[in-house]
Amino acid sequence: MTLQQLKYIVTVAETGNITEAAKRLFISQPSLTNAIREMEKEMQITIFNRTNKGVTISNDGDLFLSYARQVLEQADLLEEKFLNKKEGRPKFSVSCQHYSFAVNAFVDLIRAFDADKYDFTLRETQTYEIIEDVSHMKSEIGILYTSSKNEEVIMKILKQNELEFEELFVAKPHVFISSNHPLASKKTLKLEDLEDYPYLSFEQGDYNSFYFSEEILSTLDRKKNIKVRDRATLFNLLIGLDGYTVSSGVISKELNGENIIAKPLRVDEHMRIGVITQKNSTLSRYGNIYMEGLRNHIEV
Q1: Which of 127, 221, 248, 251 has its CA 20 to 30 A from that of 56?
Q2: DSSP label at 205?
Q3: pTM of the full predicted structure?
């Protein structure tokens, strides 16, 4: 196995086409095909499934590529450190539940890095996908919460995937509502206050169990339920329908404007919000900058 072979395979994955990848790498198509087959034979896996329309990544290939990208990034850092070679296009990815502080930290990362080129990804996605992304190293960092209701299950899944959970902060549940909501003048809210208003939550796809719910107290029976996929839609519905959702209480006026406010919810529960990473892994410099940004935005 060579770094050159890893670069070949990553390029094929990015283009989805061996012919296009060969042009980008300035080698012949047969040479590229042979290099891939040699790697697959050496690793005893199928990295790419061949089709008439190009290639697709196999399940084993998906995991192999996550490791390959890490190896190439480390090689770039070594060359930059000891050979004064200018770094190529760095890659960094975060997968998280829908938290404004996660977005703010990502903005801080971009500003601190201030490079001519980079390939960074912020995925606000479903809880189970966050765990899968970090497990398969599609993302270096994941952000999610645990509570008394889901902690045992979440921690078991993290252990099975050799992931670690590091607590960022503990928050009491808050209700997010419109600043014009009929309950906006109240200092705190009870569940009974919210009974007649639409409850908004993030849809979790095939894993819609309450263990993976992004909202605490998701097991409660509510008369009016609306599920959405993105934060902008949820906030628009909060405003347009006098709806509400339950979250950590950390909100960004810069990102969400003055129309969304947080009110403490009077319940005996808590949220442990933290990051998940590969067990015994060392964060990249981008991961360290991102973690610093997170801590700067989680004052509650």
Answers
A1: 127
A2: T
A3: 0.75
